Amino acid sequence: MTNIGVTELGYLGIGIRDLDAWRFYASEILGMEWGDSNGELSLRMDYWHHRILIEQSDEDDVLFAGYRVAGPEEFRMMQHHLEECGVPFKVASPAESEKRCVLEFLRLSDPAGLSIEIFHGPLVDRHKPYRPGRGMHGRFVTGSGGLGHIVIRDGGVEETYRFYRQVLGMRGTVEVRFEMGGVRREPIFMHCCERDHTIGFGVGPLPKRIHHLMVEVDNLDDVGLAYDLARRNGVPVLMAPGRHANDSMFSFYMQTPSGWFCEYGYGGAPPNHQSEYNLVGDIWGHEMVATSYTGEVGRETPG
Fold it and tell me: What is its cofactor (predicted)?
């Protein structure tokens, strides 16, 4: 059977309660471009029409994750592959695809119930220069690495691994073994593009579908600027700046207005396509400086 799989995390859909808080956070802290077109709210990070779609919702959580395939042939192959795997899915209508600003997409769910969208042909607005919400020294790193990565709630580690490996075609395994609060943790990180990992899971119980979204910038000073802006504006910082051992990302973690976290990073390593693991989460730094939304204080999950 042909090896068919997704090629990047293209976009996220999030439900948020406080639009004003998110507008300030996304624009003035993260530096993203806030979009409002005919009542459709979105965040832009590059030439793509959107990287994050926003819906007003009391859930304050991720609603769906959009994974890309290369083109129409791969999209048909993915449908056949899903049928062979016995995974139920629904192809979106042309009107739904146009609203999503992609040529075609379909919907399915992962083992934890997170809505997954597989698409091809995103709308790319190269005639519209990207305008960050506040001054930046550089730009967001997207391109062949996609939007970034997410660490998600799993529906059982083995079942979740089988889904993302056998159904979506990602690769990966345990990258870190460590203890947190006396409990041994072996989170799994999986990749599908030129980013060390696109998803992570196996971090223990989570109150939301997402633990964090990582976005990467191409200038170290933008991480420092975001850190200063977060502290200056009262944004809770979960983990101080540091460098991860598994993907070499220099980053810090802060809370979003919805209660989950954003990792803001620089200098992440690409995948080496061969398995390896670490016994520590960080080369240095990333001290916990706040209580997470789970109420736990201690060493947070790397990645």
Answer: Fe(2+)
